[in-house]
Structures are given as C-alpha cells and as structure tokens.
Design a protein that fits this description.
five-stranded mixed beta sheet, 44% helix
C-alpha cells in the first residue's frame, strides 16, 4: 500500500511492528496484543429539529483490556470511521501503559458534523449512541472521555443516560465530566499541560531555554490553545496558530489568552486583530523552534515534511505524522515527541478523575497538576533513556515501553480458557 492510500490503522500497525521487532516479541503475544479485542458499530437514529429522523453511524473499539478497563475519548467528526477509531484505540493502549496507569485502550466516534447540529440534536445523538453502546461501557469495563468536538457537556449526557439506565448515579462511567458532576480539577487543560511538560523536558534535553522558543500551533482547540497559553506564560513566543477556518501570524508573538477569548466569541482565530492572515499550509513550514500539530491525523506527510523547519515537533494530536514523514523528520534530526507520550496528560488526569469519582474524594488543582507533572516527567525520561540507549527514534522507544508493559501483563494473565 502506498502512503497516499494507507489507512490510519495500517499506520498504527506499522509503528507497532517496528517496536515489536526491536523487542523481539514472540508471535503468540504479538498477535494477541496487536489487534482490537472488540469493535462495535452502531446505528444512531436521531430526530432532527425539523422533525426528520437521520441515521448516523457510531463506533466504540476496545483495543485492549490487558492492563485494566478500556479507556479513550469519543470523537464527533464527519471523517470518523471504523479504521480511524481502531487506530486511535490502539494508540490509547500503548499510551496508558507508557504513563503506567491501570487502563487499556479504547476509542469511540460518531460520523457527524457537530458544527451543523443544534445543542438539542447533539444531546439526542449522544443519548442514543450511549444507549447503543451501554452494555459495553462502565467504570470497570470501558470509560469514554472527550476528544475532538466533544466536551464536558457531552460527558454529562453520557453519564446521565448511563445512570438512568442503571437506576443510580455512576459518575465513574466517563471522565472529563463537569466539576459539578464529579469531574477533576485540571482535567480540561490536562492534555495541553501534559504537552507543555513534555516540551519542557525536550527543551532541557536539547539545552534550549523555554523562554527563547518560537512556537507554531496547528489546531487551536482544547489541547492546542492550552499549550499555547502555558508556553506564552513561560516566556516563549507563539508566532502562528491555525484552526479549521484560518491561520494567523505575528512574528512578535500572539497573545494566546486574547486569542482564546476571540475564538470563543467569533468561532475562529481567523481575523484576530493583532495578527496577519497566513495560508494554513504555510504554518507547518514557518521557521520556529517548536511545531505543535494539535488538530487531527495526517497533518505531516511525505509531501510537506521536508519543509518543516522546527527543532522540536510535539504531537499534541493523535497520529498527526505519517510513517513516511517520520522518516523524513528523523533524517532532518528533528526531535519528535510522539503522540502516545506527548498528549498522555489527558488520559493521566482522566485516571486521576476516575480514582476521585470512585472514592468520592476530591483533590485540589495543585495536587492534580503535581501528580501530572511527576508522571509526565518520569514517562518522558523512561522513553528518552531507551531512545538514547537503543539508538531508536522517540516514537519507537515509546512504543517499546508501552508494548513491553502490555506484553508482560498478557503473559502473566495467560490465555483464557
Ligand atoms: P478540539 O475539537 O478542541 O480542537 C481541535 C482543533 O483543531 C479545532 O480548533 C479545529 O478547528 C482545529 N482543526 C481541525 N482541522 C484542522 C485543520 N485541518 N487545520 C488546522 N486546524 C484544524 O479537539 P482537542 O480535544 O483539542 O483534540 C485535538 C487533538 O488532540 C486530536 O487529535 C485529539 O485526539 C488529541 N487529543 C485530545 C485530548 C483531549 O483530552 N481533548 C487528549 C489526547 C489527545
């Protein structure tokens, strides 16, 4: 398969094989942990505001429960399909293992255009989707969370639908809930903050000062806007940001706080007064120290990787770099922080939220961030050490850490029956 028609799941499998070969993983374990355990496709009929009924297709994939319940976000997007959800679930398995939390990997999605739907339509879509996957989820089985175009409100609807069916309140069925329903302090910004911590570790390793960095962010959403704000607060200069509707540039630095307010008001970064417009594809090639792809898959490909001029690529998004682009970046000696490590702050604080939900005992924000920082720094060090010792790219090293841990759990559990 050429890169242009390779699927995202093929890409996840190619990354798996590279790490599994270096681990000399035997075929029995390799084949057991490579493929998703369960893939569920559901029909989601929804009554629209105009009275018509529209059918949507939804997916929930549990890639692995070897180390604990399946865990992973839920995405609403017109491009969602089973192949993508399988890949995202696979990455969740290695990610949970890399940060050492007792979860497996899962992911869900509904193929829809949330931007064209009303709040009532989104609520009915969410509740019907939850009902369709209800037998497969639960605090001990599979725990959804927000991903692209889903948010705490969507999690609240899932939690309510699940609880109504059970007959009692089950806050632990989702993470990323609103605080009022047992969400964790710090969860909303956990992914971006985790990305920030890993960039700090990478800068330390490369002997770069955070306050001298110039940064470009593709995808100014939850993950992208938070990391932009934290880098700005640390003295770095955010010079370009984009979203699905536009891209803005200011060589003297954009103010992320004001940009967030502006985007909340207008729906896009496009037209931000203290900036000049830039073609979206130029952002990737902007001279800078740190490039943060924080939108969707396939952002950095063999067609555009050669033009990247950043010293560090920090993958806030899942799967933004194709394998062919990976090889180009390696040849250019770009330091890449792979998605399964870089954006693991989200699942880490999801784990902290799940623990709090189960105990009904809640921690201060500073506690949550301290735990997050410790886990991210430790995980970065573990991956970097392997990358340096074995002379392998950071992505392969991260895969080796995650896959090895899942393989060990799988061997210990043995084969049922
Ligand atoms: P989000 O919906 O809040 O933001 C996504 C942003 O990307 C939006 O601003 C959108 O306009 C922009 N975008 C979409 N297509 C684009 C394009 N072609 N060019 C530029 N911008 C584009 O989503 P999010 O939660 O921030 O997720 C973003 C990425 O981070 C996804 O890959 C997701 O899987 C990953 N991620 C999110 C979390 C989390 O906790 N939210 C955790 C781990 C990983």
């Amino acid at each position: 398969m050429t890169e242009t028609n390779a699927s995202v799941f093929d890409m996840a499998m190619e990354q798996f094989e590279a790490a599994a070969d270096l681990l000399q993983l035997d075929d029995d374990v390799r084949n057991k942990i490579k493929y998703p355990e369960r893939c569920l496709i559901v029909s989601v009929p929804v009554r629209l505001d105009d009275g018509r009924i529209q059918r949507f297709e939804g997916y929930r994939v549990q890639h692995s429960t070897a180390r604990g319940p399946a865990k992973g976000g839920l995405r609403y997007h017109p491009r969602v399909n089973l192949d993508e959800v399988k890949a995202l679930a696979t990455w969740m398995t290695w990610k949970s293992a890399i940060v050492g939390i007792p979860f497996g990997g899962g992911k869900g999605g509904v193929c829809c255009n949330p931007k064209s739907m009303s709040s009532g339509e989104l609520e009915r879509l969410t509740r019907r989707f939850t009902t369709e996957i209800l037998p497969f989820i639960g605090p001990e089985k599979d725990i959804p969370a927000p991903d692209a175009y889903t948010n705490p409100q969507v999690m609240a609807w899932i939690m309510d639908t699940y609880s109504m069916n059970k007959g009692y309140c089950v806050p632990g069925v989702v993470t990323g809930k609103p605080l009022e329903l047992g969400g964790s302090m710090g969860r909303i910004e956990a992914t971006g903050r985790g990305v920030f911590f890993t960039i700090g570790c990478a800068a330390e390793h490369l002997k770069l000062k955070l306050d001298s960095l110039q940064v470009c962010v593709q995808g100014f959403g939850n993950a992208g806007s938070v990391v932009a704000r934290l880098l700005d607060e640390a003295g770095a200069k955010v010079i370009a940001v984009s979203d699905s509707q536009g891209c803005v540039y200011n060589g003297n630095g954009l103010p992320p706080g004001k940009l967030i307010d502006y985007k909340n008001r207008t729906g896009s970064v496009s037209g931000f007064p203290e900036s000049e417009p830039m073609p979206a594809e130029d952002l990737l090639h902007c001279p800078c120290d740190v490039l943060i792809p924080a939108a969707l898959e396939d952002a950095i490909t063999e067609d555009n990787a050669a033009g990247i001029r950043a010293r560090i690529v920090a993958e806030a998004a899942n799967g933004p770099t194709t394998p062919a682009a990976d090889r180009i970046l390696q040849a250019k000696e770009v330091f890449l922080i792979p998605d399964v490590l870089c954006n693991a702050g989200g699942v880490t604080v999801s784990y902290l939220e799940w623990v709090q939900s189960i105990q009904q005992l809640f921690w201060e924000e500073a506690d949550v961030f301290k735990r997050l920082q410790n886990i991210m720094r430790q995980s970065f060090k573990t991956v970097l050490d392997i990358s340096v010792d074995r002379k392998v790219p950071m992505r392969t090293a991260a895969g080796m850490v995650g896959i090895e841990r899942v393989a060990r759990a799988t061997r210990l559990r043995g084969l049922y029956p």
